[in-house]
Automatic annotation (TrEMBL):
Repeat is among the record's keywords: yes
Protein name per Swiss-Prot or TrEMBL: F-box protein 10
Segments forming domain Periplasmic copper-binding protein NosD beta helix: 326-427
Right handed beta helix domain segment(s): 9-151
InterPro entries membership: Beta_helix, NosD_dom, Para_beta_helix_rpt-2, PbH1, Pectin_lyas_fold, Pectin_lyase_fold/virulence, SCF-Subunits/Alg-Epimerases
Amino acid sequence: MLAASTLGCFLRRCLFREGKGGVHVSNYGQARLEGNVFRGLNYAVRCIQNSTIVMLRNEVCECRASGIFLRLSAQGLIAENNIHSNGEAGLDIRKGANPIILCNRIHSGLRSGVVVLGNGKGSIRSNQIYNNKEAGVYILFSGNPVVSGNHIFQGQAAGIAINENGRGMITENVIKENQWGGVDIRRGGDPILKNNYICYGYSDGVVVGERGRGLIEGNHVYCNKGCGVWVMSSSLPQLLGNFITHNCMYGLAVFCRKDPENMEGNWPGQEGIGGEAGSGERRGVEGERREGQENLNEEGELFAWESDLDSEDERHSARRAISVALVESNCMSYNGAVGLYVKSSEPLNVFANLVNGNRGTGIAVLQSSQLTRLVTNCILENGRGGITVEKDCRVELRGNGIYKNCGHGVSFCGNGQILENDVVGNRGYGIQVLGGADIKVMRNRVQPAQGCGVAVLGPVKGVVHDNVLFQGHPGNKKELLHMDAANENCVLRNNSVLRHNQSCTSALPWVLENPPPRPLASSPSGLSSSQYPSRLGISMTTRISATVESGCHNGSMFCSILSSGVSDAILVPACSKDANSTGLRTVEIN
């Protein structure tokens, strides 16, 4: 409809080359360009001052500045063009310009593919954006486009960068094989990043840098060589319902500051753009301003990006009143190191996530001067411990299910509380509290596979009360509740210790009910259980029991059924010998 309604000058199959500019449209002008070649100009097309342009099937290449430049409420349709090898951005959109950028190939630029800034808008849809030396799409200074359905790949910097209070709706893109972060958000960047595939990057999947913000929801972040998601603790993103899997390093890492030692040089740099001097965060020479490069712009206009801001109020209008970073309802699975790594100086809320199958610890809190809350998460079958909390950290563990991890269920050296968790089937201790911890351990249900249920080691202060501890394997001779004899500052009270009856004369049931196995379906935000990945991580029997009768053979007399998938039933060893005994018993799964 836009193309059909555009009148004015019609240029078709022309060659524009080696001049100052190709086509300039201004003052409500209209033009239609089809099948032209723009090569070796300062710029190819400049559309300003409420003008409208339709560009179909043109080639725009080797311009010394940006290829196509739209500003001052310009609009139009730019479709099926080949835009490549330009000295600045392939397309530059700013000052209220609002074009439709559709089905183009935007590639091999010496800087970014598309730049949107200074309250520029636009719909950038179904393009192939690749092999640019800087960001495929760069949004900054209150730029606010819709970026959807694009294939952004093989860039030499970030796939999409949102900086300096940039915004944008970024949905359903495939962002892959980029050298730096697939998506890089920082310095007040506040986009909605939703339902994208961010994969096979040579660094991290998503980077939320210093003072970054945004809603990051429903994305698939996988097979990146760095972290799945890397968040600076000075930023305040919301990560909801993402699948962060099979990345080579941490699933999600929250760091307290820019520290190259943290990630052995994997800090993803901030790209330079349009002649701006870079921040100190860049990595590598490709993002640096090249010596002697000149910005060539119509009528002597400088690339002074800040001058495109209409007001200071508008610059900050995108910020939402969020005071704590939120990590909720994500799957962080099968990553090469820790599932969730926290080294933060800011508060953090971690609710209802599934953290399973990671090669390192499920959740590791190494630094947490403000309160980190770990609530209703499922931490399952990780290669080391379930949750590790280091000295001087402030952490609350509440309502989590911590199952079948290869180390201790919980190892806690910091300050805080461990309340109402189910810690079952871990290979080390169920809950280990040590060092100078100041802790409350209350109303937990603990069944270790091999070690102690709850072990209080060293000069720990606090209380351990109203916990239920059950022996795992009958061959486990460790104390279910152990406290060092020299400890005078920790109080043990009203804990229930249940062991197998070695006389084989009676049955001793232990049931995870009232409440059923944690994590429970209820949540801080009121989402249903079907929306919670933490509920998908575990299916359990309604009754975990050890029935020991006469004539039992040696071996496991206790059955704990855990499943990372969905099954109708599981076959487990039976201890009784009756007429129908086959050595297996079918146990229905909740």
